[in-house]
Design goal:
Number of helices: 9
Distance between the termini: 32 Å
Helix content: over 70%
Number of strands: 0
Strand content: under 5%
């Protein structure tokens, strides 16, 4: 078992890492805006499942193979970068269409479904090999020298819980400001900004090295 103090320290580091601006942050914010808190929760759950999958992959040695192979790393990285650009372009297209309604007219608008939000969060995380690199560097600092696979899985559960905690809190904050964000002009401006950020992040991910 992982000692309580070690588990608490690891949880804090995971929370701080989740709070840092990046693709996951932008995706949860955008899905919360387009689908409400439920969609934001679903996107956060997808991201958390991606984190769990990466840590399990590390425990099984799969992530180490990925990061050791320049070709595999580049392929996953470019696919992930392309996915971010696609999400950004979708935001730009929404701005171009100009189909925005104020809160009082939202009944006619089709909100983002929770399932679609979950998939966006999951794919955004799984297609980012930098997550594997991050946890490959982080986990050894919290595992004993003779750490077992079971202890790695314990840290995976902690990382998943911390990720869910932060992104659900983010979705709640965005949801609490729904009236402000649901104003047509505000939503249009946010879609333009978030779309640009997603495209910029996609280009940044594609340009980065391992």
């Amino acid at each position: 078992m992982i000692p309580g103090a070690t588990a608490a320290s690891f949880l804090l580091v995971v929370l701080l890492g989740a709070m840092s601006p990046g693709p996951d942050f932008v995706v949860v914010t955008r899905t919360s805006l387009t689908g409400g808190r439920r969609a934001g929760f679903a996107a956060g759950a997808g991201i958390a499942l991606g984190v769990f999958a990466w840590v399990v992959a590390i425990a099984l040695g799969v992530a180490a193979v990925l990061t050791a192979s320049a070709v595999a790393f580049t392929v996953v990285k470019l696919v992930g970068a392309g996915y971010l650009v696609v999400l950004g372009v979708k935001s730009w297209l929404a701005v171009r269409r100009g189909d925005y309604r104020d809160l009082g007219d939202d009944k006619a608008a089709e909100p983002l479904k929770a399932g679609a939000a979950f998939r966006q969060g999951l794919f955004t995380n799984l297609l980012n090999p930098k997550v594997a690199v991050y946890f490959l560097a982080l986990l050894p600092q919290f595992l004993p020298a003779d750490g077992s696979t079971l202890q790695t899985l314990e840290l995976a559960v902690i990382a998943t819980a911390g990720t869910v905690l932060w992104f659900c809190a983010l979705a709640l904050v965005v949801g609490a400001l729904k009236r402000f964000f649901s104003n047509g002009r505000v939503r249009r401006g946010l879609d333009a900004v978030l779309g640009s950020v997603l495209v910029a992040l996609g280009i940044k991910v594609a340009a980065e090295t391992a």
